Amino acid sequence: MLKDQSGQAVSGASAAALPLYETALGQFHCYTGNPLESAEAAIAAAPDFAMAHLLRAHLYLSGMEAPGIAPALQSIAVARRLARTERETLHAVAAEAWAGGRFDAAAERFDDILIQHPRDSLALQMGHLLDYYRGDARNLRDRVLRVLPAWSDALPHFHAVLGMLAFGLEETADYAAAETTGRRACDLNPRDAWAHHAVLHVMEMQGRTEDGIRWATAREPHWAPDNMMAIHNWWHLMLYHLDRDEHAEVLGLYDRHVRAGKSTVILDMIDASAMLWRLHLRGVEIGAARWAELAEAWAGTVDDGIYAFNDVHGLIAYLGAGRRDLVERQLETLRRTAGRQNFSNAAMTAQIGLPVAEALVAFDAGRYQDCIAPLRAVRSIANRFGGSHAQRDLLDLTLIEAARRAQDLALVRALAAERLHAKPNSPLALRYLAVSKERAAA
Q1: Nearest to 238 by CA among 228, 223, 248, 229
Q2: Residue 9 phi, psi dihedral angles, 5° rounding
Q3: pLDDT at res. 3
Q4: Does the pLDDT of residue 195 top 80, yes or no?
Q5: What's the per-residue H, E or C state across the chain?
Q6: pLDDT of 335
Q7: How confident is the model over 382-425, as pLDDT tens digits?
Q8: When you count CB atoms within 10 A of the terminal residue's CB, does the N or C end of the chain come out lower?
């Protein structure tokens, strides 16, 4: 039986197919090129190659999109028949759990693989993505730390391990170690978009706007071309320009990069919704056309209900576009999902997704007190419906703006103080503090 570059036995592989599989895995680790096409080429070269079928399944699942479930299940069924090792069987079990919406079980199975096979970088990446989707900051870091002793610079894909560790360190607020680790990963492989983005997260959380712009723009040739994370990294650059109140630049980047291709990839649409909502909270004129285009792109997902984080961002687009029909359908999907059994997204939706959605609807209707209460209730547990600290900041930004519009000056002052502790030079936080003091003195 042949072995892959990390020394793992791969049943059904051939000398011609194995390099294609390794290419696909490397593309997935860097989010470059078309790893699905490469995986399918490996399958064509060796139809009994179990891990190639499993990689195909994992790629379909990794985007957290409903249309990916059916092809993933097809590959899982083939892989189950072809698997000859315990590792391959566990990959199939983990993928099947993910496809069935049992995210916690899938995350545990990937950990089972890694305990026995710490150099399985595919299992590590899939587990890492599930930790991100579940908002499990501790495992974003510790899943990688558990396997780190088995890795070294001499091994292929070590840059990806460091990139994942950098993001986990950032999400657990170990910013200095996160930045050092992320930069080291980028030195090993400049095309590692995940490592690049981990450093962007560090600078965002520390309010290092100028550093963030320099890091992103200097490295643009590495992360922007032919990269599945390009839009997300553009989004991070836009956050820095937003911090500098450069709203025209933000909208320019949005038009030129985020929505230029009118992507219907959910991860791309999440970034678009999140940015337009941030601008909306600031009172920036966005234009009906931008909202309408985005709402139409989201419309095909309104009944899916596989992940609350997606649903909330779809709702944002429908609110911005004034699409009451889609708002009501999205709310109905959230309510239906919250009642499902043996489905991880049910708890995510019931605890976080539905209350947040109702708060956003209240904000849109000008019922600011009705927005404040649910957001205050969930903000300390919002990680449970996934995303990063930077992404979930949308909830805190909505809360403080709702408090301002409700003229709850004490709450504005308290929330502004909280933001200024993390970002002492934030113009936005300073404006909120000034508003609370001016009105209090009036």
Answers
A1: 248
A2: -65, 135
A3: 95
A4: yes
A5: CCECCCCCECCCCCCCHHHHHHHHHHHHHHCECCHHHHHHHHHHHCCCCHHHHHHHHHHHHHCCCHHHHHHHHHHHHHHHHHCCCHHHHHHHHHHHHHHCCCHHHHHHHHHHHHHHCCCCHHHHHHHHHHHHHCCCHHHHHHHHHHHHHHCCCCCCCHHHHHHHHHHHHHHCCCHHHHHHHHHHHHHHCCCCHHHHHHHHHHHHHCCCHHHHHHHHHHCHHHHCCCECCHHHHHHHHHHHHHHCCCHHHHHHHHHHHHCCCCCCCHHHHHHHHHHHHHHHHCCCCCCHHHHHHHHHHHHHHCCCCCCHHHHHHHHHHHHHHCCHHHHHHHHHHHHHHHCCCCCHHHHHHHHHHHHHHHHHHHHHCCCHHHHHHHHHHHCCCHHHHCCCHHHHHHHHHHHHHHHHHCCCHHHHHHHHHHHHHHCCCCHHHHHHHHHHHHHHHC
A6: 98
A7: 999 999 999 999 999 999 999 999 999 999 999 999 999 989 99
A8: C
CA distance linking residue 179 with residue 187, whole number of Å: 12
Residue 105, burial from CB neighbour count under 10 angstroms (0-12, 13-18, 19+) = middle
Tokens read off for 215: 């890091």
Residue 120 contacts by C-beta under 8 Å, 6 or more apart in sequence? 6, 8, 87, 113, 114
pLDDT at 315 over 60: yes
The highest-level CATH class for domain 1-130 is: mainly alpha
pLDDT at 439 over 80: no
Under 8 Å between Cβ of 13 and 55: no
Q: Can you give the pLDDT at residue 438?
A: 75
Instruction: Count how many Cα atoms sit within 13 Å of the Cα of residue 337 in the half-sphere of its side chain.
Output: 30
Given a contact cutoff of 8 angstroms between Cβ atoms, the answer to whether 355 and 377 are in contact is: yes
HSE-CB of 217 using CA atoms within 13 angstroms: 10
pLDDT at 437: 85
Average pLDDT over residues 362-384: 97
pLDDT tens-digit map of 110-159: 999 999 999 999 999 999 999 999 999 999 999 999 999 999 999 999 99
pTM of the model: 0.97
187: Cβ–Cβ under 8 A, 6 or more apart, which residues?
none
